[in-house]
Amino acid sequence: MERLERDVVVIGAGATGLTAAVRLQQAGHSVVVLEARDRVGGRLWSDHIDGQLYEIGGQWVSPDQTVLLETLDELGLDTYARYREGESVYIGADGAPKRFTGDIFPANEHTRSEIERMIGVLDELVQQTDPAAPWEQPRAAEFDHISFKAWLEQQCDDAEARANIALFIADAMLTKPAHSFSLLQALLMAASAGSFSHLVDADFILDKRVIGGLQQVPLKLAEQLRAGDLRLSQPVRRIKWSTAALAADAVDGEVVEVVTDELVVNARRVIVAVPPNLYNRIEYAPNLPRLRQQLQQHQSLGLVIKVHATYETAFWREDGLSATAFSPYQIVHEAYDNTNYGESRGTLVGFISDEKADAVFQMPAEERKRSILNSLASYYGPQALEPVVYYESDWAAEEWTQGAYAASFDLGGLTRYGALQLEPVGPLRFGSSDLAAEGYQHVDGAIRVGRRLAAETADTLARQSMSERSAHGTFVEGVIA
After folding, report:
1. Is residue 401 marked as binding?
2. Does 16 count as an annotated binding residue?
3. Are 175 and 167 in contact (CB under 8 A)?
4. Is the N end or the C end of the chain the one with fewer CB atoms within 10 Å?
5. Phi/psi zone of residue 420: left (φ > 0), alpha (ψ -120 to 50 degrees), beta?
6. How far is CA 52 from the centre of its chain?
7. Residues 397 and 309 in one domain
8. Is the Cα torsion angle 366, 372, 375, 380 positive or negative in sign?
9. Which strands form 208-210's sheet, in the order they lie side by side?
10. How many Å apart are CA 321 and CA 86, to the nearest integer?
């Protein structure tokens, strides 16, 4: 077994972990990043499938993601706008495709009116919700004990309007059925993007992409680490820490031992930068406090299939379509033009989430593909049935993710455990985009959390060093200790 000593061990080489590691290294601390996968990036992954570059994981950049935009500029990465010229397509309960422009789907006057009214109601509630502390919302307990579905049924008598409002949170973001999470969790999702209206506006929330792929962010961050400070294919098996470190300022002199199959690292601090559903893949000695263990049992990731279909040409553009398409009644609930920068081929990307994903995963692969392409053809016509490259991103089957896009709480969990998830456990800190306020479940949020964890960790290390110098009778800020 190779043995290392570092100030900080960072577990996870996604955007959060690498941001924290780079910042700590810049502050003068020694770090090592341990990654279970054989690659950098976590839930960001840009790869070639049958010669075609696909964003298998996260990909979009929106104007409110100011920290991500700042990071892209620092790393010298350029962006380009998502193609959006032409009409969008909506398929309602009648199964007929309808073309439209703007944000509100074409429907009868009452349904449209109800959609617009409910957007206004949710925007008002979101303005009362701090994404950094949603449990302090004036009606937090009430809103956390009713499902988003049940609340919508109380507020609106139009089933199609309810289905469309739910689509923006349940299908498109949390990737869970609307009956399985609370109204408060829905408000947090919208507050993290600035408003519910932003989630409705595809031209805002899915504004730009990075030329060459968003995975370049973690890849370029990794390049800034010193040689040997990033170790791939090193799943952490065990963290040995001391319960004495639970007391405030009681971490002086404590050493944490982090063990993989090939390494033993002794460190003063550990940052666990993986999704919450993976925390229990690590053995903690001793166990984490009981409430932390309970917390983990009330968070889970959703389920989504990201479908990529590439064609010789972007045929929908010739037909006057932007390729933006929505339907709460279709297998593919939303789809977009996802053509890469500078390519002559055209690519569509579509999404199948929660219970619809359950259903298609029961099908044999060829039947599933046929059903998905038929759904795309409902929006774009029969040409969508014949892609030259087809691929399904299945993150639920990925060992070190097991779902998408982010962890969310069950009913009552956000008020019960939300604040606790942000607290350190002695020398251990936990964080990822799943725990972000602004930019929740996005790369922007991952970077924000990484910066916060680095700052908190650096602060405790500085206080520990000062305490140790004081204990040895050295000068501390001009005073003889």
Report:
1. no
2. yes
3. no
4. N
5. alpha
6. 24
7. yes
8. negative
9. 60-61, 208-210, 79-81
10. 5
Q: 295 and 417 in contact (C-beta within 8 Å)? A: yes
Q: What is the CATH number of the domain that holds 244?
A: 3.50.50.60
Tokens representing 51? 């010669």
Q: How many CB atoms are located within 10 Å of the residue 377 CB?
A: 15
Q: How many domains does the chain have?
A: 2
The domain containing residue 254 runs over which residues?
2-44+215-288+425-471
On the question of a cis peptide bond just before residue 405, with omega within 30 degrees of 0, the verdict is yes
Tokens at residue 358, please? 């359950």
DSSP for 43-75, please give it. T--EEEETTEEEE-S--EE-TT-HHHHHHHHHH
**28 and 50, same structural domain?**
no
Residue type, 280: N
pLDDT above 80 (res 249): no
* 475 annotated as ligand-binding: no
What would the pLDDT profile of 318-336 be if each residue is shown by its tens digit? 999 999 999 999 999 999 9
Which letter does DSSP use for residue 104 in this model?
S
Is the separation of the CB atoms in 438 and 444 below 8 Å? yes
Beta strands (DSSP E) in 35-189 are 46-49, 52-55, 60-61, 79-81, 87-91, 97-100
CA distance 99 to 338: 19
360 known member of a binding site: no
Full DSSP string of 195-258: -HHHHH-HHHHT-EEETT-TTHHHHHHHHTSPTTSEESS----EEE--GGGGSTT--TT--EEE
Residues 149, 155, 156, 160: what is their CA dihedral angle, to the nearest 10 degrees?
Answer: -20
Q: Whole-model pTM?
A: 0.94
Residue 2: pLDDT band by 50, 70, 90 thresholds?
Answer: very high
pLDDT above 70 covers what percent of the chain? 94
Mean pLDDT of the chain: 94
